[in-house]
Amino acid sequence: MNNVIDGINYWIYYVPKEFKRMSEVDVSKKSSSTKWSKKEILGHLCDSAIINIERFIKIQYEKQPFVIPTYHQDKWVAIQKYQDTPIEEIITLFYALNKQIITIINNIPDEKRSYLCDIGNNELKTLEWLIQDYYEHMEHHLKKQIFK
After folding, report:
1. Distance CA 120, CA 3 (A)
2. Most CB within 10 Å of its CB: which of 2, 20, 83, 98?
3. Inside any domain, residue 25
4. Minimal CA–CA distance to 52: which of 10, 14, 60?
5. Strand extents, DSSP E, 24-65
């Protein structure tokens, strides 16, 4: 898990610096009406952090396997109005949520990392897999969509 913690730490310091180099117009621009802007993508990563904070906690005490509820990402982004939110507020949220995720990961007992969750279609994964997947999802959006 150290690679995940190191990676999250890297991004929570890199993201604010890089966004400060961009204008509000640049971070708000959409390539099409069906695509998210960079602000909305970062907002989506905040939503992902919110969802996963709950998952990382509940998997440790709920009945096994913990069933992951569905998540409607487009509705979350739309309802939270990230496109209309100042980028500084989204950056602050991204930073705070991911600092909390690091705290949670650091405090998961080793034996609980193998706890199972049902990610859909009766596909079982461990808590450790879910944490790694969270980080890979974050990196995908940051490297391929925001800082490409």
Report:
1. 26
2. 98
3. no
4. 60
5. none
Give percent above pLDDT 70 in the chain.
Answer: 100
Query: What are 65's two structure tokens?
Result: 């396997």
What is the token pair recorded at 60? Answer: 């440790």
Nearest-angstrom CA–CA distance, 70 and 103: 25
Ordered strands of the 116-118 beta sheet: 66-67, 116-118, 124-126
Q: Which residue type does 49 have?
A: A
Q: Is 44:90 a contact under the CB 8 Å cutoff?
A: no
The CATH number for 58's domain is 1.20.120.450
Indicate the residue type of 127: L
Burial environment of residue 111 by CB neighbours within 10 A (0 to 12, 13 to 18, 19 or more): exposed
